[in-house]
Design a protein that fits this description.
Arc Repressor Mutant, subunit A, single chain, 203 residues
Length: 203
């Protein structure tokens, strides 16, 4: 938060402005985020907004940077179970915070501030989750290759961006999520993994 010299900024008003910004991003999109709309909804002056954030991109960055959109799953006892836990959120529609972040994806190609916000909200938490899952696998003796884990992170990130930008509510069925884990994610980490029994049934 930037601010300018003078009287201290009200933390309560800052939180209110951030909450209003998230609501606008989630419900109406990045293109509708402007100081007039925020001031009207928050019943605040525009000067108070610009004392905190010089641009709408800076405000959006502050708003979404507080999110952690990829929680580390509970230890499921196996790499497969951990991956299923990680992508379980894919079976639910995008929530408020996810919708707010998703609204920035297109514009983030041209705005450094928005890219930084998405990096804090999604990219870094996802990388941390993959590291934790890899550490658990190593502790169980599965010992995934570091380069394979890096590739897994890249593939997961691509799926997350797809979830944010696809038409509809972003949700896939539990069966689809399981198939992604078994047919895409696990083979990335374990390239020699055997073909799944259901695919050979009846052969």
């Amino acid at each position: 938060m930037t601010g300018t010299p003078g009287r201290p900024l009200s933390a309560e008003l800052s939180e209110q402005l951030l909450a209003v910004a998230v609501d606008i991003l989630a419900d109406e999109g990045w293109g509708r985020l402007n100081s007039d709309r925020i001031a009207a909804r928050a019943r605040a002056g525009k000067a108070g907004i610009y004392r905190r954030w010089p641009t709408m991109a800076a405000l959006a960055r502050s708003a979404v940077s507080r999110f952690s959109l990829v929680p580390v799953p509970e230890d499921g006892g196996s790499l497969r179970a951990d991956l299923l836990g990680l992508v379980d959120c894919w079976t639910r529609p995008l929530g408020r915070e996810e919708r707010a972040a998703a609204s920035l994806v297109g514009a983030a190609r041209y705005e450094d501030e928005l890219r930084a916000g998405l990096d804090a909200a999604l990219v870094r938490p996802l990388a941390a989750a993959v590291v934790e899952i890899g550490n658990r696998a190593a502790a169980r003796g599965e010992r995934p290759d570091a380069s394979r884990l890096a590739l897994l992170g890249a593939v997961l990130e691509a799926f997350w961006w797809q979830r944010f930008t696809a038409a509809g509510d972003g949700a896939m069925s539990p069966e689809q999520a399981e198939r992604v884990v078994d047919d895409v994610l696990l083979p990335v980490v374990e390239p020699a993994r055997a073909v799944r029994p259901r695919e050979t049934a009846g052969v």
